[in-house]
Automatic annotation (TrEMBL):
A Pfam family per the record: Response_reg
Keyword DNA-binding: yes
Name of the protein: Response regulator transcription factor
Keyword match Phosphoprotein: yes
Organism of provenance: Nonomuraea guangzhouensis
PROSITE patterns: OMPR_PHOB, RESPONSE_REGULATORY
Keyword line: DNA-binding, Phosphoprotein
Coiled coil: none
DNA-binding region per UniProt: 124-217
Annotated signal sequence range: none
Domain Response regulatory: 2-116
Amino acid sequence: MRVLMVEDHEELAHTVAAGLRREGMAVDVVLDGDAALDRTSTNHYDVVILDRDLPGLHGDDVCRSLVGAGYPARVLMLTAAGTIDDKVTGLGVGADDYLPKPFAFAELVARLRALARRSRPALPPVLVHGDLRLDSTTRIATRDGRRLSLSPKEFAVLELLLAAQGAVVSAEQLLEQGWDEFADPFTQTVKVTISRLRRKLGDPPLIETVPQAGYRI
């Protein structure tokens, strides 16, 4: 899942982003509304976490612009404005969900995952292929009953491959959906992650390399 965090409180933004990355999400951070629109014009995100009281372009205007342009990401407003009227207004300008500050981090994660499921064709929470089982809710993957010790990136790549249901997923797609803006597209990071994942999955091999195309299960 790729997330854009739009929050002018820099320390809070980076703290939340770090926590979401530990949950296996790819997170980019911007500090104002104009930067948010600039970033969404060039990148695809599953969910945009949007503060309302932003410097420059107000969060409500950012939301209206995204909705008006048909941008496919879901919008979660995360803001100190927490009255009923605030929520009604935020949802009225196009937000898909609204979470007042202060908030429980576990609730934020749950809401983001629920929104991401709505931003693309719905997938079951448990993906199964033969003796391989991946539970996106508990973040547990097993093979033949054996729990796999996967890093957040390895889990994300495995989830993307299973979600493709046998279709080929290119390295570029994996990089776009599984990493944040700091990933270098010219590195071997996807290839290295696939290699580690193959070792952890064991035999018989599950991940096939399709020359000049990508990978599939």
